[in-house]
Known about the structure:
Elements lengths: L8 H9 L3 E5 L2 H4 L19 H4 L2 H6 L1 H16 L5 H12 L3 E5 L5 H5 L4 E3 L2 E8 L26 E5 L8 H12 L3 E5 L10 H8 L3 E5 L12 E3 L3 H4 L6
Parallel strand pairs: 1-2, 1-6, 2-3, 6-7, 7-8
Antiparallel strand pairs: 4-5
Helix pairs in contact: 8-9
The chain binds nicotinamide-adenine-dinucleotide.
Amino acid sequence: MHNQLEIPLSLIQILHRAGRVTVLTGAGISAESGVPTFRDAQTGLWAQYNPEDLATPEAFRRNPQLVWEWYAWRRDLVSGVEPNAGHRALAELEQRLPMLTLITQNVDGLHQRAGSRRVIELHGNLFRTKCLEEETLVETWEDRGEIPPRCPRCGAWLRPDVVWFGEMLPTAALREAETAALSCDIFFSIGTSTLVYPAAELPLMALRSGATLVEINPQPTPLSELADFSLRGPAAEVLPMLLP
Ligand code: NAD
């Protein structure tokens, strides 16, 4: 196992020979853009709340106004930041490699803003809204000053189109992600603690089907021991080093 910030030549060679590359990203890749991970301390008004107690269906039913406002705050935060060198390096790799599948647990849309064209969003997107009851996407609604606003069709509350703790992942996205994990030559796990299932299962599926497993994270995770290469550094520093 390699543990230094220099990229081992053998990894560069494997990457250049790889036909299929699959990448899984988590909140850590956006940390250097200024988007806090759930494990970072929250700031300001929201410091008193634990995100894992806000991002649940129960929390929304208990206090929909609080949860809606937390998401509104996160949307504002993300709107004010830029993709970083890590997001940009992945967009560049998508152009240069024969087949790169990018799977993200993030809901911030920063990969797309950095230029990645195909992104499998496992946990939805902060900037989409859906009806709580019908689950259909809703793009516009009348602002009657109500928080959360109401579905223009059925009058139920609107909610962010994200996957909350305890909810099912979108079936098609998960299936596509699993296929990409099972059929790749090399799998990158970047900026994720690999504690949140079922996304955490993807690197293990890749490993079992014979892929080279690479982790990029400044901190060790349960995956570090299993990875062929564990690159302990921030994604925005390490990923640009993979570009030829
Ligand atoms: P997580 O479980 O994906 O953990 C974050 C990981 O990122 C940690 O292992 C940490 O060591 C690592 N990390 C921190 N800085 C890094 C850097 N500069 N480069 C690389 N790795 C770095 O994420 P979580 O915060 O525990 O969130 C749980 C769920 O909530 C996930 O679905 C997550 O994606 C989502 N979430 C998304 C966003 C976002 O869209 N930006 C933000 C917060 C949480």
